[in-house]
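2 proteins. here.
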Amino acid sequence: MDMDVTDGVLPQPGAHGWDAKDGQRHEMKGPFHLPPGPDAFSFVLYQSTGVCLEEGHRVELLENGTVFDRMLEDIRQAKESVHILVYIWRPCELSDRFVEALQERVRAGVSCRVVVDPVGSEEVSGDKDFDQKIERRLVESGVEVHYYRPLAGKVLGRLLGRNHQKLVIVDGRIGYTGGFGIWKVWEGDGRARENWRDTHVRVEGPAVCRMQLTFSRSWQESGGSLLHPKDLPGPCHVGPVRGGFVDSIGKLGMTDAERMVRIVIAAARKRLWIANAYFTPPNAVLEQLVHKVHEGVDVRVLAPGPIHDVPIVRASQRSTYEKLLNAGVRIWEYQPSMMHAKTLLVDDWLTVVGSTNLDALSLNKLGEGSLVLADPEFAAKLERCWERDLECSKEITLEAGGRTNPWRRLARRATQLVGQDR
């Protein structure tokens, strides 16, 4: 790789990276700088997460409910295996479509495996509808179903250590990720109150192998057996796009989710547009966003508006506005429905789409996964999504909703405390 890795890539003592005060060193303490371009970014991503941007992908941006038609089409054509890992799967007409497609594939000899998170699907609310109305139908038809870390008899740490990933992998060659769950709120166009606004991606290529391995690890932890070699066919290069899938599991210290987010932000030189469902990032990330504005980067945030599924998180989200607005960040809130997307758009070539939220819980505790892509064409498509979303979003100013208050500060303290990594 033809690049000088000493050109500000690694933080140096007493300079941009290590804080020499009291002899302390802080993980990825910014500001820090990356050399320009995909090669340099790929090298830094690799040394931080073990994932580089490989060539050979074909990708498709899918908004809102359109993802399910495409997904079910691929499932119905599966020849070897269908693997689904989701946080939320609840009874509805959409669920029935998935159950019927999986039942048909099992009859055709295809191995179908499902992992659901019990917190997202039933245990917190006490609603046992997945167990009684979905799991039973799947298991009786031959689909293997497991729960990720059941809560019975476990301590608080297990309540927070959930798997928030959203993965569908077909034949080990086609992968889907994004913000989706299998429930009625993800149908529609994201313009009605009951239809959430979300963004997803379909991918073919080497990153699907990493997605399959991510599924396999959760499958094993949930009680599933080892996959057959035919379920891991190896990398297949099918297109020109460079990309990589970064998965992350909560742990003590800095997770790969936070490393990925910090590196993507650091790569911005002209533009950094963030759309995120639970935008209440740790202070280090907030400081990084402020620094980017000072560098002349166009930093924008698109967050949920008045329709939000977790009110305390929205209050925490709004506690960040005053600092960001004073620095020059522009902020919008989506108005028609819950804005559930988790995307990053950097300059005109780098994008992130997946399940990773910019809150302490997601960055420290939850299992997450996002596809990182270096492709100008995909970036242009995501930019057009932004333009459409801003047509029905309200820009926030200091005079109109941007100032903090005691309730918002308290909410932020609570959300940061829940996601503390120590």
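next one coming up
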Amino acid sequence: MENENNYLLLTPGPLTTSSTVKRAMEFDYCTWDDDYKGITQTIRRSLLDIAQVSSKKYTSVLMQGSGTYGVESVISSVIPDDGTLMIAMNGAYGERIGQMADVYGIDHVDLIIDEQQPITLESVKQMLKRYPETTHFAMIHCETTTGILNPIEEIIPWMHEQGIITIVDAMSSFGGIPIAVEDLKIDYLISSTNKCIQGVPGFSFIVANEEKLREIEGIARTLSLDLYSQFDEMEANNGKWRFTSPTHVVHAFAQALIELRVEGGVEKRFERYRDNQSKLSEGMKKLGFEPLIDTDWQSPIITSFKYPSDDFDFGKFYSKLKESGFVIYPGKLSEVPTFRIGNIGEVYAEDIDRLLKVIEKLSQKIS
């Protein structure tokens, strides 16, 4: 679809959206209106379809705020005072969950893995032997610090077998990578509007095992991020949010969900993202930019590239790319100098081709 921006966002979200998603924000809704509440309920059902779950066993809850708000809603709402949370960390977003646990005084044990390596089942098993008191487990699916894709399909079912409640931050993967939430035994999955479903920033959402969700009534540590109370309100009042919701963002997200279906669903979007990333990675290698993450663990969402030389000027590189119509991300690693290029949103093969041509010209001038 036609992009009305003067540059393309090659980031993991916010991302470049379609003109039709943007136009959906022009409609003003009343939060109490039945039509608006009906949109909320339609969104909730659509999220369950994307998650490949049975609506009888799972539910979805929408939460005001960015993706971090959604993660904090889960962390602050589902772990009782006598619980222990194991957090798998191989990047900044796993570490952020640890910060949340600290703020709320939640006991947690941290499985810290090198940022360039995936979380493995064996490392989780060893950690659980050391901390058998663990009651809850949280991990990131796509860690956008580097672009690494962690193997939730190996780890989460095993943790479930141990009787541990599982939490998956699928912020930058849900809707762009198939995730069979019910088959994997994920109890809580969190994502947000401005990632692979290609909406705009404004709210997050949680796909939850309803039986587990109903058990957490009354233990939330905040008012506005109380996950159970938000669920209860939406159930009791047919899609009514407890507090003022981002109505324009909600309508845009409903349009984005329609466009996901038109594209062919998650599988087709995954193919586009995967093809984008493959073209990007191979093209950048030819230009002297080496990907940070091994191909076996590389996500189709965002790719980290090492600086090609010690005197590489990222600031100048960034500015020149922006002048040419592309915005990329700086690196987030503490040890290896990198930058990141995302390929989700309204980004297609021809856009990657245009980017590579621009970088080829710049690489001769910037070192």
